[in-house]
Hints:
The structure is a homotrimer of 500-residue chains.
Chain A lengths: L10 H20 E3 L7 H7 L9 H23 L7 H28 L6 E3 L1 H21 L5 H25 L8 H18 L16 H23 L6 H27 L8 H6 L3 H5 L10 H29 L8 H21 L3 H13 L10 H30 L28 H4 L12 E2 L2 E2 L5 E3 L3 E4 L6 E3 L3 E2 L2
Parallel strand pairs in A: 1-2
Antiparallel strand pairs in A: 3-4, 5-6, 6-7, 7-8
Amino acid sequence: PHNSNTNVRVSLPVVCFVWQTAMVILxxxxxxxxxxxxxxxxxxxxxxNISSDIENDFYFRYPSFQDVHVMVFVGFGFLMTFLKRYSxxxxxxxxxxxxxxxxxxxxxxxxxxxxxxxxxxxxxxxxLINADFCVAGCxxxxxxxxxxxxxxxxxxxxxxxxxxxxxxEYIILSILHARDAGGSMVIHxxxxxxxxxxxxxxxxxxxxQSSRLQGSVYHSDVFAMIGTLFLWxxxxxxxxxxxxxxxxxxxxxxxxxxSLASTVLTSVAVSSLFQKQGKLDMVHIQNATLAGGVAVGxxxxxxxxxxxxxxxxxxxxxxxxxxxxxxxxxxEKHLKIQDTxxxxxLHAMPGVIGGVVGAITAAAATETxxxxxxxxxxxxxxxxxxxxxxxxQGGMQAAALCVALVFGIGGGIFVGCILRLPIWGDPADxxxxxxQFYWEVNQEGNIASEILPEDEESVxxxxxxxxxxxxxxxxxxxxxxxxxETKQLCFVSNTFLYFQ
Amino acid sequence: PHNSNTNVRVSLPVVCFVWQTAMVILxxxxxxxxxxxxxxxxxxxxxxNISSDIENDFYFRYPSFQDVHVMVFVGFGFLMTFLKRYSxxxxxxxxxxxxxxxxxxxxxxxxxxxxxxxxxxxxxxxxLINADFCVAGCxxxxxxxxxxxxxxxxxxxxxxxxxxxxxxEYIILSILHARDAGGSMVIHxxxxxxxxxxxxxxxxxxxxQSSRLQGSVYHSDVFAMIGTLFLWxxxxxxxxxxxxxxxxxxxxxxxxxxSLASTVLTSVAVSSLFQKQGKLDMVHIQNATLAGGVAVGxxxxxxxxxxxxxxxxxxxxxxxxxxxxxxxxxxEKHLKIQDTxxxxxLHAMPGVIGGVVGAITAAAATETxxxxxxxxxxxxxxxxxxxxxxxxQGGMQAAALCVALVFGIGGGIFVGCILRLPIWGDPADxxxxxxQFYWEVNQEGNIASEILPEDEESVxxxxxxxxxxxxxxxxxxxxxxxxxETKQLCFVSNTFLYFQ
Amino acid sequence: PHNSNTNVRVSLPVVCFVWQTAMVILxxxxxxxxxxxxxxxxxxxxxxNISSDIENDFYFRYPSFQDVHVMVFVGFGFLMTFLKRYSxxxxxxxxxxxxxxxxxxxxxxxxxxxxxxxxxxxxxxxxLINADFCVAGCxxxxxxxxxxxxxxxxxxxxxxxxxxxxxxEYIILSILHARDAGGSMVIHxxxxxxxxxxxxxxxxxxxxQSSRLQGSVYHSDVFAMIGTLFLWxxxxxxxxxxxxxxxxxxxxxxxxxxSLASTVLTSVAVSSLFQKQGKLDMVHIQNATLAGGVAVGxxxxxxxxxxxxxxxxxxxxxxxxxxxxxxxxxxEKHLKIQDTxxxxxLHAMPGVIGGVVGAITAAAATETxxxxxxxxxxxxxxxxxxxxxxxxQGGMQAAALCVALVFGIGGGIFVGCILRLPIWGDPADxxxxxxQFYWEVNQEGNIASEILPEDEESVxxxxxxxxxxxxxxxxxxxxxxxxxETKQLCFVSNTFLYFQ
Lengths: 500, 500, 500
């Protein structure tokens, strides 16, 4: 059912313009500033006896927000640049769908959770963080289909992904009243299974035709490390961005920081252990080292204790790395799930672990450790949920994990069906992982014609490569390779050369 | 009038040493810590009844300051690395002139706005932010002349640019009493026209001789995306760094965040619509996506409303991208303005739009929306400006825009005249966009001699290239190209090849 | 005594697993949340009359902490990517040892300074910053031995380095009661001499066998600039992260910002002055521009005055750049110290200068400048140290510098002895600076075999290179070079070519 026409000159602009126009209208109808970002804040301060401007929520959360923002745009974007010829698509489409997604998320999440009595959604920095979180779910899903879909498909994936996320989040946080500070369930489990299910629906039996591009080169691996490190460093901000003021944010940072540190060591250990001659594999270092951050997402704000965080990170580093070594090939071969970035190892498994750890930690919470007040504050046993017991909370956490799984898999199958329609401009199997179908890629060798002597003797084509017949010219430049030839010779590229 | 001697061994060290020495002396005479950074802060706290250290302005502004700092050094620096062989110059000269500029800005802006009764300039974090802002104006100007000037010229451009900026800013903010939180007028309009006027004065009719280097390669485009993304992500901090504590900073962030998101979608739409086969152009993604941040600069702190921000971003994405497609070639061909980075599209037009949006928003401000107190606080209708009406404020905003334009164009023509003197070591037309004239560029091919068999038969030179005659040797390495030849063959380089 | 077997498949996993398990156990026994990160914070607030959550130390220090975190992982990591084929090792091993080091540092520093009456170490954001600082010392040491050691050796270096650091820090800060906000002595002097002493112990007389890899390529220099700029930008956060709330942090930022700006200009000046044709050397721009941040480390929180900071930066830029030009070759030739990154110029000399500047500034402190209260607060003349005079404090600062030197040099010699044991899997002299011995490096040319015609006529090998005999195949791919050959020809690589 695949359509190899990658021309999106109509569909992409139409989708962008129409959707963005819709955003303008919906924002006009629904979105307003909240009390802390509205010009009447000073009156609000007086009315509510807030002693200083610094107690505006902005100052509690803005530094974390910016860190999350960096994770979404630079972290996810650059992490996916590892492919040798899909860096533009990685960082550029990541940029596009995040920019759309955050607007749609402000609306969807707003309707569910920030709707004021006047029917308006009142936004502040917390909504911006939530929108970025919501987008992160879709970017994780992008990781599973990286290089195999068109930008229009990605926008559709995002539209539905954000919608599903908002519903799932509402069920998990408001109805089940589960806690999920860093989104192990809401973001990672949902996002990863959503992407994997889509990838399963879009299975490409002949993807090995693109295998020459499905790998990294030296520099692209270094670019990917930019993404890895910004994700790794700012993950404490991610897990603490929306937790309680004071100790809640403080503790979430410590737990995440420790879990991530522990993951690095066990990822390195397993990577070395399972490779010939003990050499490390950049794929593991780029990805598995982050699993600890995913897996403390739910429990980061709880009294997980520093050693508890280390233990979570310890096992996630092992599991995630083993996943890259054994599970990814297995999924592709036996379950027909092609997972470009290995999101199953980095987000799905650690996300599920995170949900389980969260459920156990919640169920095991005692007044001895938390204090009466601490228990109420941490788990928000207040209002309708006054008197909830920790063990019941543990049950709700477990139920929440199931909801995330169901929404991820079910939503992914549904959206996958839509994305199979032959109208989205996705690439043929042999054109995957190649930027040149959606980007003007600079013809690196176009200088060659300048410096080749004009009297050069031309010969007939001797080679066909990558669908380009080399015509009766003495120089041929493909996106990847500069090919030139004469009686005597020859082609060359960035990295290799042929001659006759 | 061009001097192709790019040796700056005398002029560059002399300028650096003399100017830096001058800075030391002037700082010694004029600059002191302000009350919030001085060791006597605790006394000040008691005297002024400030209840906690956290109300030191430092904690309101330092996170934003660091984001702005990243925009200035990494954002602008890496945005300009897109050229295939001018990355050192892009990021290195950006570094140099910013480091000088911020010192000079502290003095110039200090004399105009932070001079205490004792004749000293008292500095704190707000001054550091202002200095970074001031520098940003000059870095925008650098974008217009990127690759065509010497480092000494850039330092001269910065010296005068900072000076002009400080005067223009004083007129706009203090005399006209206009508001310009994110500097749509003060920074972007001024900086862009300043650079464009200089570029016009330094017009190079034979610049096409460097055309082979006036483009990107795959990796340089990915490096540039680092700059783009850090600018895009941190722009909310830029526009809110100096706004009022509390709601002022909070609202400026929301407006900027939304405007930028909207811009991304319309930039992508137009880029795809106007290219063959709907392919995206990295130049647009790298630059036009930022136009929304420029254009809400003035109005970011006003009650622009979330949908208002989206609308501004919507149109700026379109206009900026169309500018890259149609206006930049037009300016070069018909107005003799060579604008390397397209600052006209990214800063000049959006800056003017931002000024107009600011004037309209200010003029349309009502007590219904702002409240009496809000109106006074937001527009600072206080002291000498007590009782100013919004419509009058709108007029002042419009006048401010004209001041920025006049200073930019007038100042650029004046400084351009100075930079035409044949003493600055600027490159010849055929040497533009090439790092090797100001940087020790690693001789990438120097290993070749090691591995070429010594008994290789030498032949006479067959080629002259890039001013280097290939001498009677079988290997020639230029900065860019490894050339080697024998009876049978051949040269090769990173990207292309010649053979005989 | 060098063992050229670089197989670390046993040793690396064992060390990682055992040490990480030890961390889990020790954390379980010793580490707990402190009052500000514990769930009982609200009780603590009430008991201690803290009026708002925003006065949790978290909000004073978290933005600075994240900046420091970026410096440690991206700053140091990318600064070392300048080598053409050691980027994986630079950024990857930096990641590994930092992740281990911060855990061990939490314990070691905790035992010395955060041990509560119940025998537990209570941690909060300040401990995380301290751990990152401690790690920075070891990463500096890594700079001296970059490319010449195995990851196992690096872990050993880190284990002992952190231990020595904690002792040295305790002596300097607690016993001698010296102040060292940004760690000119504690971090930079100690770390640099520790690394240099190790490098001296591990002297490799035949290192020139790796000289072809001991340099940069164009792109690797741009990657290194990412490290440089993040270090440069966030250095004010580094020097202020642990200073006093309020004016202490504010002033440390201003001093560091100014010193660094000044250093850039003098580094550029000297770099240009001492190179042929005034061309700038990227090594100087990448490194010497940071010397000013090191050198105001101790005095950043003192009343150094803005011009004082400029003066410190001024001279450090000169000294550090001259160090790269003259001293590094001298050290290698005459003292047998091979200093890959030039840490002697960037950290050792500026660190010592910083210690001296700190001692002088402290000794010169007067009540006129500081006020009685300011003097007590700034230098902590309280408790056991009540009534200390500034001149005595100056003496203690000088003594502290000596302690740092002794621990660095002595510790380095001791650890160097251990690292000389032939069990660590370090590379042979000709294998240094080459990622392929510890990393699965992508065989960039492996596509060549696909596109070479199958009927290509093979010939006998004609070349042996880099220990790889070219076998009876027409294509040979090494990690670095694609080599291919036939009757007529030839090999090519990323950067160079051979032919027959």
